[in-house]
Specification:
The complex is a heterodimer. Chain A is mainly alpha-helical. In chain A, about 55% of the residues lie in helices and about 5% in strands. The model of chain A has no long low-confidence stretch (mean pLDDT about 90). Chain B has a domain of about 190 residues. Chain B is built from seven helices and 20 strands. Classes of the chains: A mainly alpha, B alpha+beta. Chains A and B meet through α6, α7, α8 and α9 of A and α3, α4 and α5 of B. Chain A: Keywords: Ubl conjugation pathway.
Chain lengths: ~160, ~325
């Protein structure tokens, strides 16, 4: 077992087989730097719980194909990314810091799926981005490729 | 008459970026650092998007289709800078190359045979594409696609020639990105591109530029074009490459940093390679069966492997042979 400590001083015990999906921690263990508790100053306990949930589920990912658990994992992944933007960003940041490639890809794909086909207005509202382009600059971009701003698939909702 | 060329879709390499940017790594890195600083500033000013770091945004956006991306350049200054970056185009390109759904055929078909007007469309690679997946493309430059030829495709670009009715019926050569609908007219080579010409295009990482090689079945000398220099240059010929057995208008195969074609000398065929960076020639022995079945032979690339092929008659039956060369002496 490996002990992880979040930035709000909560400790979590994780199986080594699960935690080594993080390249960062795997390297620490290999270098013999993980003898006691591993402090994670960038990750709060709420996010760490999510990450550990993912690591535990994906512990035998290599074997999933053999045991026919692929569909089960797929369903888990779909449920897992069903969270708000704030929480998704926190998990992405944690995955980035811990260097868990699969989790990073899963979350970035989820971010991409949410943005896909959205209108410019919807993207700004969803991500609380202030438009700092002038009206002229904006018009110039639209004039460059007006077809990119038209089409029945463009979705103006913020869900 | 239908002709095809494979092309990766949809890609974001903007022609403007390609011809404008000095593509060397140091410059690119320098630009990226500037972007990071911009990003920090925006975060401080608005106190939003605290967590959407540049690399994470790049990763997420690179999974999107081109139409959404072009629209999202309008979200904010930071998003525009990021999406317009050459680094982002490359990342998007790599993602598209690994995505089977992004691979499409570019097909051009004689639409009105009496007037020699073509139409161009793209369709998925699957063996039985559905009618609704076939998408007609807007022709570049608003010219009538008269006598159109697609010579080769590379990284989502296509090199096509059209006979422009407006300019004294002269052939013009276009570098076209069907996904972004952008195109530029390439300068004419010293020896014109015609039915006996083959073109190949690829990225030369040694100088960070796209290059186009033009070789011809007839006696016209080979010429090379670097996108940033903007001019054609005649190159030396391979000493033994007297009879190029290329089929006019077929794209040149590109593998291991070199263009490949097939040459014939004294009853035997051999492969010729021309390195994209320093234009050094190499020779590749071909399977001896090539000679037996030959009517039309050539080189192509599949799954990253060079594949010589021959199309002819074997025991009186029309036969198409392909050899997949995992390794060869280069």
């Amino acid at each position: 077992m490996v002990k992880l400590k979040s930035n709000d001083d909560k400790e979590f015990e994780v199986e080594e087989a699960a935690v080594i999906q993080s390249e960062m921690i795997k390297n620490m263990i290999e270098d013999g730097c993980a003898t006691s508790v591993i402090p994670l100053p960038n990750i709060d306990s709420k996010t760490l719980i999510k990450v550990i949930e993912y690591l535990n589920k994906h512990i035998n990912m290599g074997k999933a194909a053999e045991t026919g658990e692929e569909d089960d994992l797929k369903e888990f992944d779909e449920q897992f990314v069903n969270m708000g933007w704030e929480e998704l960003f926190d998990v992405i940041m944690a995955a980035n810091y811990l260097n868990i490639h699969e989790l990073m890809e899963l979350c970035c794909q989820s971010a991409a799926d949410r943005l896909k086909n959205k209108s410019v207005r919807a993207v700004r509202e969803m991500l609380k981005i202030t438009n700092d382009l002038t009206e002229e600059e904006e018009q110039e971009i639209i004039n460059d490729a007006p077809w990119a701003f038209e089409g029945p698939e463009i979705d103006d909702t913020v869900n | 008459m239908v002709r095809c060329g494979a092309i990766a879709f949809p890609l974001l390499l903007r022609l403007g970026t390609l011809t404008r940017c000095g593509g060397n790594r140091a410059k690119t890195l320098g630009k990226r650092l500037n972007v990071c600083r911009t990003s920090m500033k925006i975060v401080e000013l608005n106190q939003v998007m605290l967590h959407f770091q540049e690399d994470i945004l790049t990763n997420s956006l690179s999974k999107l289709h081109l139409k959404s991306l072009l629209r999202f350049t309008c979200v904010s200054k930071f998003w525009k800078t990021l999406i317009d970056e050459q680094y982002f185009s490359m990342k998007h390109l790599i993602h598209a190359k690994n995505d089977q759904n992004s691979q499409k055929f570019l097909v051009y078909q004689l639409l009105r045979p009496n007037e020699d007007i073509f139409s161009i469309y793209c369709c998925p690679l699957s063996s039985a594409p559905r009618v609704e997946d076939v998408q007609e493309l807007c022709f570049p430059l608003n010219v009538e696609p008269w006598y159109c030829q697609v010579y080769c495709c590379c990284d989502g670009f296509a090199i096509i020639s059209v006979n422009n009715v407006d300019i004294n019926k002269r052939d013009i050569l276009l570098l076209w990105n069907p996904s972004t609908r952008e195109s530029i007219v390439l300068p004419s080579p010293k020896f014109s591109v015609d039915w006996f010409t083959c073109l190949g295009m690829s990225f030369d990482s040694a100088c960070g530029d796209y290059k186009i090689l033009k070789i011809s079945q007839d006696k016209a000398p080979s010429e090379i074009f670097a996108l940033k220099s903007g001019s054609w240059r005649i190159i030396d010929e391979h000493p033994r490459d007297r009879i190029k057995t290329v089929v006019g208008m077929h794209p040149l195969a590109f593998r291991h940093g070199a263009f490949h074609w097939v040459s014939f000398t004294r009853n035997s065929y051999f492969g010729v390679s021309s390195n994209i960076s320093h234009e050094m020639y190499g020779e590749i022995p071909l399977p001896k069966e090539v000679l037996l079945y030959n009517v039309k032979i050539g080189n192509s690339v599949s799954d990253g492997m060079l594949c010589p092929y021959s199309n002819g008659y074997h025991q009186k039956k029309p036969t198409f042979y392909v050899w997949v060369m995992k390794d060869y002496g280069v």
